[in-house]
Each structure stands twice: as structure tokens, then as C-alpha cells.
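Morning!

This is the sequence you dropped in the shared folder:
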Amino acid sequence: EINTRQSRNLIEKSGYDLIRYNRRKYITTVIRNIAAILLLPVLGLGIYFYVKYYSSVSVQTTTNIAYNEVFSSVDAITKIILPDGSNVWLNHSSSLRFPATFQGKSRDVELKGEGYFEIAHNPDMPFVVNAGELKIAALGTKFNVMAYAGENHIETSLIEGVVEIQKTGEGKKKAVTISKMKPNDLAIYNKENSKITTKTVKDERYFSWKDGKLIFTAEPMEEVVKKLSRWFNVDIIIKNPELNDLLLTATFVNETLPQVMELLTI
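The structure's back. C-alpha cells below.
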């Protein structure tokens, strides 16, 4: 009886185990089929949200870039060392806006007024000066940009290296290169007709201001007065129109305004 009862119990138990096994197998098969059906949609949805998330993170990172802006007062020349090691001198009443760290494919800064640039060489990340309607792009070089808002032209003088002058496009249009400069070139862009002229200048008159010198070489009195007004933060008015035709050649180093006016009178 004991053996029979044990055998019967084993048979019943094995039957229950078989039923449970078959049930597990059936459930596993159903789950596997459901997983196979849902795999592609779930995978696609996962990739979609992954791309969307990191795109938003990238945009947020871009928009959260910290910027510095340095202003040079009406009576001072200010020197700046940029995050990449480049040196910039700002003339009177000028400002420079630049990121705390340079990211992306180029090193972009925004200039208002006049600046002299000595750029750290980096062939993988061009240095771009945004000056109103123009972009001045360089890899590693020395150049000067004059882009005061009140002037009807923008001047770029190249001392060393190679730069490209680009006209900014409207809307989403890309900037177009309108001039490639060589050392000793002076490019003058006319804001009124959007034309650019280039000439060779072998002296330091266009960037000597960073060393505290004002150099004029056969320059019309009208332009001389503009630069002196900006340099000394005064309004100089030419009452006699005939004076506009005069050309001035002079070098002023640390002279006061009364001294300069006396020299002009002589």
C-alpha cells in the first residue's frame, strides 16, 4: 500500500509538473511572440526619444554659452587676452563680445569700434571677427579692424598672415567672400554701395594707435578731425570748408589736445 500510494503520488506530482511546464512553455511562447512584434516599434521609439533628448541637450548647451563683453572707455586703450590665448587691443569707445570658451567650428567674436588682433594659430578653428555687415576670418595673423557705427565705411588692414573678408548673408544665407588680403593690404568697405577697395599701405598708421601714437600720412583734414575727436572725446568743428581740402602728415605721441591744436594751427 505504501509503495502503491507513493507511486500514485509521484504520478500525480509528475502530472502536475507536466501541466505547469506546458503552461510555462505556452506563456513563454506568447510573451516571445509579443516581444518580437513590439521589438521594432519600441526600438524605433527609443531611438526617436534618444535623438530628441540629446538634440535638446545640444541646443540647450549652445544657448547656455556664457559670453563676456569688454568695453574700452572714451579715454583709454584696453588690452584683452582671449580664452584661446589671442591678444586684442581695443581703441577708445570700442567693445568686444566673445564666449567664455570657444566651441564649434570657429572662434567668433563681435567688434564694435576699432580693434587690433594678434590671433593664436589654430587651423581647425578659424578666428572670425563680426563687424556689422562684414566678417573678417583668419587662421592666425595680425590685423586691424575699424568698424565704428558712425562711419560710412569699415577698414581692415593686414600686418601679417592671410585673412578673408566676407559679406554677411541675409537670413539663412551663407556669408560670401568678397576679398582675400595679403600683408600690407588695406581693404575699405563702403556701407552705402557695398563696394570694397584695396590698396597697399607699408607704414603703421592704421594700427599705431595701440602704442599710443596717431600717425597721419597725407590724410584729408576731415578724416583727421574725426580721429582726433574720437581720440580726445571732443567735438571738433571745421568752420571754413576750404580746410577740408588740406592734407596732413604728422605723428602725435602723447600730446595733449591743446598741443595738437597748436601744431595744426602752425
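Headline: The CA atoms of residues 31 and 205 lie 82 Å apart.

More detail when I'm at my desk.
O.
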